[in-house]
Structure formats: C-alpha cells, structure tokens
Amino acid sequence: MSPTLAIVGAGAKAVAVAAKAAVLREMGVPVPEVVAIERTGVGANWEAAGGWTDGRHRLGTSPEKDIGFPYRSSLVPRRNAELDERMTRLSWQAFLIDTGQFAEWVDRGRPAPTHRKWSQYLNWVADRVGMNVVLGEVCRIGIDAGRRWAVHTHDRTVSADGLMITGPGQAERSILPGHPLVLSIAEFWHRAAQRELICADRVAVIGGGETAASMVNELFRHRVSTVTVISPQVTLFTRGEGFFENSLFSDPTGWDSLTIQERRDAMWRTDRGVFSARVQEALLSDDRIRHLRGRVAHAVPRDGRIRLTLKTTRGNENLETVHGFDLVIDGSGADVLWFLPLLGQDARDLLELGLGRELSGAALEESIGYDLAVTGVTPKLFLPNLAGLNQGPGFPNLSCLGLLADRVLGADLSGAGEPEPSLGRRSDAHQPVR
Fold first, then answer.
1. What is the crossing angle of helices 185-193 and 210-219, to 10°?
2. What is the Cβ-side half-sphere exposure of residue 403, based on CA atoms within 13 angstroms?
3. Under which main EC class is this enzyme filed (predicted)?
4. Structurally, how many domains does the chain consist of?
5. What is the pairing mode between strands 317-325 and 305-314?
C-alpha cells in the first residue's frame, strides 16, 4: 500500500500536490495517497467565506503561475516532458478553455483574475483529479501508536506517514478582539463583501504587507478622511516585480549560494512587508494615505477612540508614541506559526528532539531541507510556508507550485511506519470534491 500524505488546508499548495500526484499515478508512478483536511472548502481563503478577501480583488501573482508552474518537472527520469505535458491539461489556460473564457481573457489583455475566479480554478483542478478532501477543522496534531502523524478534527482522525501544513492561520485574530472600533481581517472583509461602507475620520491599518495593501486598496471607496498605514519599515516599499526579482521565485537555483543576510534582504525587498506595484500606483493618486513607522505595543479604548502605543527605535533609543484613531483594522498579516498551538506534547517533543533545541519559528525556518520538510524529523513534516529562507522565496507563495509539488512528492516517507489500510485512504467518508 502507498504511504499517506496528509495536508492541512485545501488551498493552492494542496491542490498542486494532489494534482501532480494524480497525474503521476496515471503514469504508473508510485506516489503517496494525498488527503487534505479543510474546514471550509477548496480554495476557501480566496473567497469571502475564508475571511481573507471579499473575492473581488485581483490576484497579485500572474495566473499563468498556476498549479504546474514552472513546468520543469524532475521526478521521473526520461518522462519529465510527458509529466509536464499532462500537467498543462490542468493549467490556468486549460481551465479558461474548458469553461469558455479563454478568448475573452486574451482579448481583455490577460488581466489578473479576481480572487473568486482563482478559487474557481482551484476547484476545477480538484474536481478533475478527484482530490480527496476531509471536511473538518483540525483541533489537534499528534503522533499515533504507529509513529505516524495523527491529525484530529472534532469527529475523526486521519493518520499519515507525512504531514504538510499550509494556510495563513486564522483571519479572526486582532489586537483588541470584540471591540467595535477594532476590526480583524475577517471582520473587515465581511463588511466589504456586504458592500457596507466604512465611515470614519481617522482609520489605521496595521501591517505593511500585501494583506494590508489589499485593505488599503479597498478603503479607497469608503468614506474615510485619512488612512494611516502602521508598519515597522521606514516607508511603504514597492515589491520588486522585474525579471530578475521574479526569476528568484520561479527558479531557486543558486539560492543556497547566497548568505543568510542576502537571502533575508531579497525576501524583504520582493515579498515581505511590501505593497504590489498596482496598489502603490493607486496610493499615489490618493492624498488620504499616511504612513507611521513602528510596532504596535498596546491598544486601549479611550474617549470613543482607540489609542495605539507604537514602539520605534532611533539610534540606540527605544521610543514610544501614542496615536488616536476612530477605527483600527488589524491587517498585520498571516501567521506562519499558526499551527503550533495545535501540536500535542508528543508532537512537540518529536520536533524538539529532531531540531536539537527548543521549538521556535527561527528553529523551524532554519531546519527546512530540500524536500521542504523539517530536517531530522520522522515522520516527515513539510512546512513550505517556512521554506523561503533555506530553499527559495517562491515556496511560501504561489510562485512555483509545480516545483513545490516535486519537492514534496519526491520525499521519502518510508521511514514513517507502515500505513494502516483503514485511515487516510479514499472511502465513503473521504469523497472527492465535486
């Protein structure tokens, strides 16, 4: 029997891995059985229901960077060209052709699709390959008696020889939960999806990345006097989107020859804490936008406003300043370590033993190997969202999904124990998405 690879989340990364596994299986190549555990549905974070968007905003990445990109497979010697050709049948263009939208998309100048359209594409791929999805919210991750991963939802357990964690975490978190003048990412997009106008004089958006950028872009149509973006950076940087920057994401060859500092600099310049060029262009035409440098240390409601305490450094001095706002939107972005509270003590012990030190984000990030898994840990734990520093900046996002699938499916899961036939396999409880 094939080993089982469980994936938490059914977004683009999970669909890419499941699709390539299905195509390899059609070619007679042994691959793991892939099962995704998802609380809402395939591609949910690209829909309003996921809490990260209203579905109407545009994809920041070119849609041609689809689930097979960059179509340079290396898994099957002498048959990789065949594998890539088969994967093109699941491409963005193939989706448009199949749904009768290709000519219109070309005639319109190949625009970036809306988030909702991208979700429809992911669902189309999942349907075509019979992706195995277990609906349920993961509440605990542990190790079972067979030394395999045990992924628990509220009503079932999936055992697996390898586990991949995806997704940005929970969009509901905020610096002041439940307060009407502080909106989480999910609360903001829920109001936007309902076409509810925000009316406020002074609005603060916390965060300098693309999550915050899309919120600022949405606020242009609302009745606000000023929008202040709060981020640690000295200014609002524009993401590098030229050929040389983009090629770092599509092809990480040579990435490991860079120093750690050079890699961090490249990721900050092109991916983290930056706004897309499209959003920056819109900012230039709107004089309501401001920027404050600092990290939010405290948020206190007072006199009908929210007072934010910002910490900054000037030379060797640590400074604190207080600013008042009528509405605060916490768009500080995704948390790549969102899964840590789900780990049982047995799982935490396993990771700390493999890491050789205390479990932390830095320790995990520095441990990611070529296969995008934590080095020294069996059964395998794949963390593509933490793979940017060691393996290349394209793995945490949508920039090289086909290469990501190659790395994960090429990993050796045999050391994780024998799979049990009743778990992680397709059955009446694990039906393909339709």
1. 40
2. 23
3. oxidoreductase
4. 2
5. antiparallel
Residue 424 lies in a domain: no
pTM of the model: 0.88
> What is the CATH number for 232?
3.50.50.60
pLDDT per residue of the chain (434 residues) written in tens, 0 to 9:
799 999 999 999 999 999 999 999 999 999 999 999 999 999 999 999 899 999 998 888 899 999 999 999 999 999 999 999 999 999 999 999 999 999 999 999 999 999 999 999 999 999 999 999 999 999 999 999 889 999 999 999 999 999 999 999 888 889 999 999 999 999 999 999 888 899 999 999 998 777 888 888 899 889 999 999 898 876 666 665 667 677 778 889 889 898 999 888 888 777 666 666 666 666 666 778 888 889 999 999 999 999 999 998 887 788 999 999 999 999 886 789 999 999 999 999 999 999 999 999 999 999 999 999 999 999 999 999 999 999 999 999 999 999 999 999 999 998 643 333 332 333 333 333 32
Question: Same domain, yes or no, for 11 and 152?
Answer: yes
Q: CB–CB of 140/342 below 8 Å?
A: yes
SS3 (DSSP) at 387: coil
